[in-house]
Please model this.
Amino acid sequence: MKKYFFLSVLLAGLLMYMQVSEAEFSAVLKQEWAIDDRANGQKFEVLFEPEWNLSLSDNLDMTIIGRVRWDGMDKLGSLTDNTKNFSSINHALLSGSDGDVSIREWYVDTEAFGAFWRIGKQQVVWGQADGLKVLDVVNPQSFREFILGDFANSRIPLWMLNVELPIKEAGSLQLLWIPDSSYNELAQANTSYELSSSLLVPQLADGQILTAFNRRKPSSIFSDSDFGLRYSTFYSGWDLTFNYMYHYLDSPVLYQNVIEQGLIIDSEYERSHLIGASASNAFGDFTLRTEVGYSTDTFNLSTDLNQSGITKSADLSSVIGLDWQGLDDTLISIQWFYSHLFDYDNHVIRSQDNHILSFLYKQTFQNETWELEVLELHGLDKDDGSIQVSVNYMLTSNVKAWIGTDVFYGNKTGLFGQFKNTDRITVGFEWGL
Amino acid sequence: MKQQNESSLIRSMANFIVNNPKKLVFFSILMMLILFTALPQLYKDTRSDAFLAADNPALLYREKVKAQFGLSDPIVIAVINKSENGVFNPQSLQLVSQLTEQVSALKNINSDRVISLATENNITGSEDGMEVELFFEVPPLTQFQADNVWKKVSDFPLYMGNMVAKDKQATLIVAELVDENQVEETYQQILQLIAVIKKQKKTENQDEIHVAGEGAISGYLGSYIDADAQRLNPLAGIIITLIILFAFRRVSPGILSNVIIAASVLMTLSIMALNGVAFFVITNALPVILIGISVADSIHIYSHYFELHAKDPHADKKGLIVKTLVEMWRPITLTTLTTMAGFIGLYFAAYMPPFKYFGLYTAIGVAIAWLYSLVFLPAAMTIIKPSASKHMIALSKNKKLDAFSKIMVLLGGVTIKKSRWVIAAFVLVILTGLFAASHLRVNQDRIETFHHSEPLYQADKAINSHFNGTNNIDIVIETTKSEGLFNPDYLKKMQALQDYALTINNVNGATSIVDYIKQMNRVLNGGAKEAYALPQDRDLLAQYFLIYSASSDPTDFEEEIDYDYRIANMRLTLNKGSFVDINEVVEQLQTYIQNNFNNENIKASLSGRVTVNYHWIKDLGESHFVGMLISMLLVWTVSALLFRSMLAGLFAIIPVASSILFVYSAMVFLNIDLGIGTSMFASVAIGLGVDFSIHTIDRLQSLYKQHHGDMIAALQKLYPSTGRALFFNYIAIACGFGVLISSKVVPLNNFGTIVVISVTTSFFASMSLLPALINVFKPQFITGVARKKTHSSGRKTIFASVLMLLIVTSALLLNQKANAQDLPNALEVVEKINLIDDGDFVSRNLTMRLTDKRGKTRVRETMAYRKYYGDEKRTIIFYKKPSNIKGTSFLTFDYPDVNKDDDQWLYLPALRKVRRISASDRGDYFLGTDFTYEDIKLEGRLELKDYNFKTLKLDEVDSIETILIRATAKNDAIVKELGYGHTELWVDTKQWIIIKAIYWDPKGELLKTLHVSDIKTVDGIITRHKFNIDNHQTGHHTEFVFSNVDYKTAVKDSLFTKRAMKLGK
Model:
């Protein structure tokens, strides 16, 4: 209660300050309705995202982005029941069974000591790939709608210190200190996008019951902090980055212990070092985007319960993407994601080498009034995938409407195939205030 | 001694030619080929407006009026049905409806500006006040319904005679064009469309469909003339080749003459193309004329050479060629100079650009023919080594004459014996001509350009017989204040002017806002006929327009009145377009307006097609006589200087003068008016005709010398040799022009006829009157030659001076650009544009307003920064509004090396990621606007590497003086890359900023129009604040408005970084 009081006073103070300082306000109201392939409503979600940009002084700017979410269907789960992945400083202000109110981002920007500082709750995106994560590990993500929600909304902002130090003309060194120990939000049990694939969730044997699920989460602000370092530069037309991150993996490792009565799962978060690089450049109508990352520790489900059902291994992942803009108003993009485990035995459920291909086709019509987007992700190992198609229409300068469909196909045990019965159609509009 | 020197100079030049024939032939052909590459740049301009200088006030005013009221020269389609119910039967009205719909659907037709029974509104009274509704929504199905339409239309006086014939038998569909430059294609599409309809409905009804109107005339004229030229030019070439073959019985003269023809004609056209001069309607006569003239020189050279060879068949041919050149270069040069003088006279005298250029470029063509005849021809002859025909050798051996020589000797005999009679006969001709000249009629009618058998001609006549007419005078009435036209007194004045106009002969109709007001007054007063009058209350008038706008489209009146009711247009229709019919109308109207209409608060000005035509034809007669006198004077001066005798100059022009006067008589007798085609005959006739006199005088001088002062002997000797050559010269020219007589373009046909008459007269006068005069008067310039040999050196000096003078004049004229005034070179203009300072850095707000064809608008507000780093330019745009795209930013590094692609990044806030994107193709559209990336990048500059630039003319845009430049993409690859085939740019001549541009796509279709406005100086830098661009193909419109432009506040380098993109500022 005290916390809410404190925040309320702070917000009220800020709002008063806005009246006298240079403040810009904007907001987006978004309404999306989804029905699944059995013609059942899946969501009827209203999102209101106000944004204030305040210039507190010549060298101090503040941004606050709030979010009010209300879902009339309540089929995707609510925050109230699913807050365990969030740190104590990253909770929603208010949450109920059908909605929540939260401060999505709140940070100040300043320039000091020859560096640019962004301090507060924010999102930092690393890497060049779209939708496939190799270096994009700074912020966790909400999988409430699996991968279907838009990234800005599904990425979970974290409280952090973000310092960017310019080096020479084109280079910069970014330092991240993230004391916020919030991790991926997984879909709740019995909701549409609850994970079921054996790649991600331990499977109970016939007759076996889950006797306990013990969750342990790092919580120390200092000792459980994540640290990141990125050097980026622009050289000979190449955008290059070299990244390092010492962090907790955002998904919990599910250790399994079989006891007589059944299965006990211990959910724990584990640390890893990530070393990687990205490079991109444009060649005529083509843009090449690549990233590669080496993680010292990844934890993969295995059938070897003597090892608690988990095999630890280093992993090398990479994405190579090629965009083509050779036709007017058209973008065609393909990506190849590849992941290799160095320590592998036959008990590991996933294959040693994992391949995912993505194909994106985006075209605008009539001076960008209409936009068609087709995105396919296809896993080669399980021969499964998803196809997302949407048509957007700009009704006016600030009103956009769309209709789309999300279809999953393939092997039920696959990453995408697990949702093959969860296809949906979405209709929505967005109003920018 | 000096004469010897000169002759030895010519001889050494001739020797050089015969010793280096291959090189000279090679260089001659190479020069031709190089110039020919410019030919594709030649463009046609068959508009009647082209006859006036681009800065002519009448033309400029008309353009302004056209823009103000959205008027263009329409294509008019008439449906005529001579049955009892006329066109008011279900089938005809269905046809009108169908035609309207199909014509409106054509790409280049402005569908909002198609007027027919199917589109126009009837204004009637209703309980609510006024009802504005279509005459019919769907075409009538029964005769009763059709009768009802007639009832409604006939009750609306405005449409009677304008859209519907008063006798019910005809109705019009008037279609205005989007782009008048594409009228030819549109006209053909309409004809095809009608052909299809006629095929479908051939047995159903008695409807006739005609297509006419100024739009159709312009549309058809181009292809009509093309077809004619394609037929005439080869025909002239073939005829002349046959004449040469016949004269010399050898193939090589035919071939070589054709090379000279090709050089003269095509090189002249290439030079026109290089100078940006258009191919006008009358330019069609140029090739034919040059064919005739250029072949004359070869005839004289060949004739002399064969004559020498026939005399001495075993002589060294090289030596013969040298001898021919030494003896012939002088008369050939003399005739070239005098011919050029004649055409240059036309250049100086004419006030219409097509005539000026005709005179100038024909003179240039003549000079080219001279050069090729004296260099290429002897060089080629040295290679071929032609021999005189056996026939000629035999004749020469036996000292016999051929049939042509015999004819000439006969003529000479008569002339020598009956010199005084010959003189008397020509005096009669001259006196008759002088009398006839005062009876010449100046007249011109564009429709008369077409042969009477042409469907377009017949359509025009049919339409003008049923309707008020297809010829328009626009009277623009301007008041000083907004809503000034709500003043009932002004409307009364307009009514009086309209009534007066209708009393003038040939004015059959008048339409203005007055008619609509009267109709509104009538329907709002119960429909009584007496209420068809102007209301007297200012407020009431304002209310009428308000009520109308509530009942229908308020833009219905945009052809009659401007949006703030300050300026109105009154359109008069005439059923005759010829000058004799319109000049009275225009002059009477001008007098009335001056005396009874204009005051300090309201003024009327005349405009419209008829007014413009009046302005360019009214001075035609004067121009003709002045031109003729200048040509005559020039020819006399040149001849006098060359022969070093003023009397010789006079003698040289007497045959020409008599031929011109004879032509006047013939014109009066044959009822040919002095019009566009015929007015330029005099200069042509002088330039060509004087050649005969020059050859005659020059030859007689030397013959007189050879015969030691025996005039009769000299004259007798003149006819078989020079006379024969001149005869073939005459035949070639007469046949060349004779071909024009078969032209279907009536003015060319008339022109051909009178030039043939004139040249024939000149030839005969030179071969009879001139020798007769010399024989009788024994002038000193002939007789003195034998005695004063030493004078020849002085003559040479003068000759050289004249030659230099003409060369210098030609060189100066050669550089004349597409306008009579000195227009700057296009590249200089482009350099000035590119030199405009745009600051080392700038920050500014940019509001983009995107409107689609349905009027739906999207607005984007951005903040944009630009900074130069040496030659590298960096720009960043931050989107501020609307919220959906707020935070989006777009960064570009634009490198000076054109081979290096730009680097571009896009930051999408939804992804929180700076995304590298490929350098956009230059022709891609910039972020959904109608500007391409290239347009944005260049910021009003022009890329020299992409285009060939050509200055077209001076023009005025929004009262700003501009130079119109055409930029044509250099090759297909650039066309493809930029998406523009060519562009026309209006450049402000004071600030060197492009203020208007029209873009055509790679297929040549009209693509976009750009207007730049609100140009102000900010921080000492000329800054364009507002850009409006219309995409004609998509109907989309983009407006860019720059504000808070700041060139002073430093722009930080850190703005052009990916971090700044994420920061959003």
User: Anything to note?
Assistant: Chain B has 32 helices and 25 strands. The first helix of chain B runs from residue 2 to 19. Residues 786-794, 812-821 of chain B have pLDDT under 50 and may be disordered. Residues 827-1063 of chain B form a domain with the outer membrane lipoprotein receptor (LolB), chain A fold (CATH 2.50.20.10).
